[in-house]
Structure formats: structure tokens, C-alpha cells
Amino acid sequence: ESRPNLFEARDKEKKDMSIESMADYFGVSPEIEAFIPELLVDFYELGSYPDRIVEMARRAGLPSKNAKVLDLGCGKGAVSLAFANAMGARVHGIDAIGPFIDEANRRADEAGLGALCTFEQGDLQSVIEEGGDSDLVLLISVGDVLGDMAETVRALRKVVRPGGLMIIDDGWSEKEVDFQGYEEMVTHDQALAQLTCEGDEILEELVNDAEDIREMNRIYQARIEAQVARLSKEHPEHAEAFEAYSAKEKQEVEILDNDVVCATWILRRV
To answer: What is the structure's pLDDT at 21?
Structure first.
């Protein structure tokens, strides 16, 4: 059976990274949306590999000093701080979750990088619509909040200068995946077609080692289960919702371990 043509824009409404969508984005019941920062309290890099991403940009020719970097969905600032620390980049990070931004700013100050890094709570769609001329824009471990890969590239092009770089962390699957957020996974060939839909050049495709992903997933799942146990004890009225989130995360780990190839691409905008 043929796969759907995902090169075309989706008919369904795109998610944004507004506060109102956080429960849906993280796959939690609305009743425990306020606990998302606590559920993820033990996560700093949030699924990313900062050093690898910095090296990709360095290999692609990002200037070693004063590069202008925009980190969309920056989380707690792990990748942003890596660019500032390793390359002296001027980084601006955006994320929808206030406590994540608070931690990113705190870490920047503690590392003596406050002059290079700014972090603010905001909506990715709004930032993109404002436009920009960054040397590099990052979309790391954020998912499909901007649409499929073609839509994502078209969005990122609005905030990066001609000749600038875009780094996208996503993945592909050669099989149908029946799980929320993965139903429209593309094949590898489709991913490459979407990424180059505007004629931009793929400079490098970095496929994450499957065993690295499995090990990271095992660590992350253990941390989530620990927080779920703690929060269920402290807030028994929400225990069922916390357990449902943990069960959902276990299912997702199985999919990531067996059905999805995770990769990072760096593109140069024409």
C-alpha cells in the first residue's frame, strides 16, 4: 500500500506552541498540564545532543564568533548555551514554558554567558511571522509544531538570512506508525524531498545511533516514572492522569526504539 503524499501541506490545523496547546503537545490530560515542568524537572537536554549539533554547525561554516543563532523551542537552553560557550555565538531562545525559560536564564548567568544568551517565553509561530535574519536557526526535538518537514522548512526560511543555516531534528519511518503524533511519519525519501522543497541544500544528515537512542530513552523513562510516583503520592486526585502519561511515554519509547529512525539535518538556505 502506498504512503500518502506528505509533501503537500496538511489539511488539519497546525499546532502552535502557545500555552493552551501544552497538554496536547506533551500528551497529558489537561488536568495535569500545570505539572509538566515537574514531570520534566530531571531533563535538561530534553532529547538533544548539544555537542553534536554545535559540531554540525561548525563543519557547515558557521562563524566562530558573533554568529546570530535563533533557538526555537529552546527548552532549558542546553543547545543555546552550547553554541554560546563553544563558539561565542549570540543566541536568542524561545519556548512556551515559563519555568524552562527561567532555568535557561539561570544556567546562562551561572555559566557567565548571560551577555551572549537571551531567553524568552513566547509562541514560535508569532516569532516566525515577525521574520528575521539569523545566521542559524535551530528546531531541535520539538516535533511537528510547524507542520510537516516542507512546512517547517518554509517557516524557518523566514527567520534565517540567505546563505544561512537551518538545523532540524526529526526522523522518518519506512512503516505506518499508529500512535498520536506519529501517524504522518514520512519515509526517508519523502523526508529528503520535503527538506529540499525550496531548493535549499542539505549539507549533512546525521543519523543518531540506535543504541544511543535506546539508552537515552531508558534513562528518560526511569526519570518520568520517578516523577510520576512522587506526584501521584503528593496529588492522589491526579494519580490516574499521571499514570496514563507514564503509560503513553512507555508506548512512545517502544516506537522510537523499533519503528523510527531519528536524525538531524543541516541545510543551507539558498
So the answer is: 67
Position 103 pLDDT exceeds 80 = yes
Q: In the predicted model, what is the mean pLDDT of residues 49-72?
A: 95
In eight-state DSSP terms, residue 34 is: G
For residue 43, the model assigns a pLDDT of 86
C-alpha distances (whole Å) from 234 to each of 35, 41, 177, 242, 243 are 12, 16, 35, 11, 13
Give per-residue burial for 24-57: e unless 16+ CB within 10 Å, then b.
Answer: ebbebeeebbebbbebbbebbbbbbbbeebbebb
Beta strand 261-268 pairing with 90-95: unpaired
The C-alpha torsion from 134 through 15 and 93 to 122, rounded to 10°, is 110
The residue ranking higher by pLDDT, 162 or 6, is 162
- Which conformational region is residue 216 in: left (phi greater than 0), alpha (psi within -120 to 50 degrees), or beta? alpha
How many residues make up the chain in this entry? 270
Residue 97 C-beta-side C-alpha neighbours within 13 Å: 24
166: three-class secondary structure by DSSP = strand
Kind of pairing between the strands at 201-207 and 68-72 = unpaired
Radius of gyration, alpha carbons of the chain: 18
What's the whole-number mean pLDDT along residues 28-49? 88
Tell me the mean pLDDT in the region 135-140: 97
User: What letter does residue 45 receive in the DSSP assignment?
Assistant: S
Q: Give kind and range of the element (H or E) at residue 121.
A: strand 117-121
Q: How far is CA 18 from the centre of its chain?
A: 15
Residue-wise over 100-118: b if at least 16 C-beta within 10 A, else e?
A: bbebbbebbeeeebeebbe
Query: How far is residue 21's CA from residue 64's CA, in Å, rounded to a whole number?
Result: 37
Give the global pTM: 0.89
